[in-house]
Amino acid sequence: LLLALVPVLAILAGVDLVNQYAPTVLGLPLVLAWQVGCVVLTVVIMWLIYRLDPNHK
Amino acid sequence: MNAALLIIGMTTAIALLLGLRAAHGRDMNLQQWSLGGRSFGVIFMFILLAGEIYTTFSFLGASGWSYSKGAASYYILSYQTLAYIFSYFLLPKIWRYASQHKLLSQPHFFARKYDSNALGILVAAVGVIALVPYLLLQFKGLGIIVSIASYGAIPASTAICTGTLVVTAYVTVSGMHGVVWNAIVKDALILAVVVFLGIYLPCHYYGGYGAMFSAINAARPEFLVFPEHGFSKIWFQSTVLLTATGFFMWPHTFGCVLSARHEDTFRRNAVYLPLYSLLVLFALFVGFSALLQVPGLHGADADLALLKLSVQTFPAWFVGIIGAAGVLTALVPSSVILTSAATIIANDIYKVAARKNASDTDVQRVARRVVPVLSLVTLGFTLSGGSTIVALLLMGYNFVTQLFPALFFSLMQRNPVTKQGAFAGILAGVLTVAAVTLSKSTVASLFPFLPATLMDLNVGMVALLINIGTTLLVSVATRRVQTQPD
After folding, report:
1. A&B contacts, CB < 8 Å
2. Does residue B242 belong to any structural domain of this protein?
3. Residue B46 domain flag
4. Which CATH number do you get for residue B354?
5. What is d(CA B444, CA B447) in angstroms, rounded to the nearest whole number?
6. Cα angle at B43 between B324 and B392, to 5 degrees?
7. Do B74 and B371 touch, CB atoms closer than 8 A?
8. Do the beta carbons of residue B31 and residue B104 sit within 8 Å?
9. pLDDT tens digits, B53-70
10. Mean per-residue pLDDT, B409-438
11. Residue B457: which residues within 8 A CB-CB, separation 6 or more?
């Protein structure tokens, strides 16, 4: 429990969906903003994985 | 002597002093010299692994690429994030096996996993070959930084020679211990400088990020998105995947992994390290800021973008601080690379191939003698080369990623790969990279029959596919031979 695949797919497959300048997000071109969003998503997912990983021993 | 030069000179002297003092009061045996005594906890590991990102590659290379290539530079942000995801699952397994068997280096690891000294020697050779362009780009960056920050008072070649001397001196004396304290100073300084420049320059010249990107988009439409050909989406995807899998294959990064105190260190760092990679974003912003302010930097000169814009914007004393941060981003990674390469040559090539009964003291003596030789060889290449910093790094990645398939298979519960398969696969991959690099081929020129979308595939990915195919084919063949009855 695949969870780590979510940011991997978002980073790699995402550029096919958002390869455009507009609409900008916080002033950044959409394609760059997507990659920044993927970094933040990765931190959230990795934190979740760390909490769920039987690190509890 | 201007203020910038004075600050850069003082920083270099302090770095040398910190590096030399690190050996004081320690019995500098081989494990202390090459791995810091395997004593680095979460904080030091974070700094060593994260600090490895902030070399002259991100300081000058990233801004140079955003200046010259636009959207292609986004890959720098993404591959590090992907690498940390992989690290959560791979590094604890590597560390556990290495610490159980008291392994000192990457070639040791492969030799033990596959029970093959020949494979260990091949891995050592590939590692050293890949490290040369990596070390070269640090030296090249050092020359650029000191030359421009001194307003031309010091030629790049003099700066490179001085930097090489400093690194060689403290690596020879202190090894990895000399690196750690300098890494802390370097990380703090580079963090402050890059974030400041990445915020100040877009605001100063354009009034903010939105206005900056809007101006660039008006002047150079399509510069901020992936083009249909060249550095296209498929180039981005294949490069991100290739460099993410190769991220921990560098011998010096692998060495840092082995020097951790506990496997939990990697899992914890994998959560927070992706945030650290966001710092690269500020370096990209600097390159984008320079695009319309210092136009006309072509080819390898694009690496000058950050410093040219800084010299144009700030007083000499502040250029000195930027230069000092830049010098440290070149010196610290150079030290890690040199320590690692020297240990590999002494411990994994000299000891295994030439003197099996050499003691640790003998090996360490050889390692310390190799340091100046390696420095001189790289110095020669640096003074005669002309590639951009990112191109040099990608060349190194193409080589070092060829070690990934054999490593990945070896971590599986039932390894389907034989030692012959691993050897043949790595060799096939490395020879492909060498042939492609020397002939300056691209996927489009090698395979003109491929569909247009695949023409921009990173050529290192092709080598990796050849590597995996060869590994599995030879493994099937050799396993069949081994299991046949006499």
Report:
1. 92
2. yes
3. yes
4. 1.20.1730.10
5. 5
6. 50
7. no
8. yes
9. 567 777 788 899 899 989
10. 87
11. B234, B235, B238, B443
